[in-house]
Amino acid sequence: MIETSFSFIEAPIHQGQSHFGVVLGPGFIRQCLLDQNFHFKNFNVMSKQSRHEIQWQAYEALSQIVEQEARRKQPLFIAGGDHSLSIGSIQGLMRVEPDLKVVWVDAHGDINTRISSLSGALHGMPLAYLIGEDTVSGSRWFTEKLKPENLIYFGVRDLDTAEKLFLDALNIRYYTTSDIERLGLPEVIWQICKLTAGSKIHLSVDSDAFDPAIAPSTGIRVEYGLSIESVHALTKALISSGRIISYEFVELNPQIFSSLSDVNKTAQIGIDLLKLILNENKLISNFTKKEKYDGNYSKYIPTKPDFYNENLQEFGLPRP
Fold first, then answer.
1. How many helices (H) and strands (E) does the chain have?
2. What number is the average pLDDT over the span 48-71?
3. Alpha carbons 303 and 94: distance in angstroms, whole number
4. Does 62 have pLDDT greater than 90?
5. Which helix (H) or strand (E) holds 207?
6. How far is residue 317's CA from residue 308's CA, in Å, rounded to a whole number?
7. Distance between CA 85 and CA 56 in Å, rounded?
8. Peptide bond between residue 81 and the one before it cis (omega within 30 degrees of 0)
9. Residue 319 gets which letter from DSSP?
10. Residue 172 in this model has a pLDDT that exceeds 80
11. Where does the chain show beta strands of DSSP type E?
């Protein structure tokens, strides 16, 4: 059995989009974790949902579980479900960590409002609600707002015109796949590390962020996506600059496949990221228990040459 314990929160939220199969994603991931001998405390968000009228209690229930486990200082792994679940997960986290940094790894911006959205799908709107550009009407539980400067995108490549205008107007930092190619992965990761230095981080990963060839079992695939190695390099670097306290993997749809291996390999991407986070965070946990941490993270951030050598060259990525 893998000894590291964490809170595994199943969030089978499906009302944000039209592919009902996404509701099966959390249970599939849970079974994979059990098959691989992980040890975890299991929670499941059970709440009424509807595609005709948004049922906010599903997000409220998720926010309460996330807040409870975040206050217990447990590592969190939230499995979706569609990406609208972040309305609940990030709201719960911000009640504990108001200055939380959110690194959004996704092909899409997910920051349309109900007015600007072309599809009307809620999974394309969670960040608009979290930033405060749209409102969760009549919901006393929705109290926190995500600061625009605390949101960073990695790998986005399918932005609506309205989303791009909105991101630019609020000066939200986003790195498209074209930016990563133009600037180079090491430089992009280094810039993100500077933005997250010393912070508590929520890593939100949509399976459609990856190239469809390696993550086929998801609803809205976009060509020329990220590699697994690039997201692993980002994750290791984030743990060097701050601390990932929560991680979610969303939009796995076990009903979308060409071969039986498609679902397994898409789910395994999310599980391998969890392994990386747990293993890397063990170093921080042991470090703090020895009382060597004095509140100043900056002196523990590697110098730029060390960062390139230790975190990127192992993936075969050249120094700039």
1. 10, 8
2. 91
3. 30
4. yes
5. none
6. 9
7. 10
8. yes
9. P
10. yes
11. 2-11, 38-44, 76-80, 101-105, 151-156, 173-176, 200-206, 243-250
H or E element that contains 144 = none
Upper half-sphere CA count for residue 181 (Cβ side, 13 Å): 9
Q: Which residue is it, tokens 């911000």?
A: 94
Task: Provide CB contacts within 8 A for 119, sequence distance 6+.
Answer: none
Instruction: Report angle CA 232, 175, 263 to the nearest 5 degrees.
Output: 45
User: Using CA atoms, how far apart are residues 312 and 137, in angstroms rounded to an integer?
Assistant: 45
- Select from 234, 244, 146 the least CA-distant residue to 193: 234
C-alpha separations of 288 from 79, 282, 292 in Å: 28, 10, 6
Cβ pair 130, 116 in contact under 8 A: no
Structural contact between residues 91 and 111, judged by C-beta atoms closer than 8 angstroms: no
- The structure tokens 């991101």 sit at 167
- Strand, coil or helix: what is 157? coil
CB 40 within 8 A of CB 1: no
User: Angle, to 10 degrees, between the axis of helix 86-94 and the axis of helix 57-71?
Assistant: 40
Sign of CA dihedral 272, 277, 280, 281: negative
- pTM value? 0.89
> Measured between alpha carbons, how far is 84 from 77 in angstroms, rounded to an integer?
16
Residue indicated by tokens 């600059």: 241
Helix residue ranges, H only, 72-123: 86-94
For the chain, give the longest Cα–Cα distance: 53
Decide: 113 and 87 in contact? Cβ < 8 Å. no
Binning pLDDT at 50, 70 and 90, where does residue 48 land?
A: confident
- Answer yes or no: are the C-beta atoms of 78 and 11 closer than 8 Å: yes
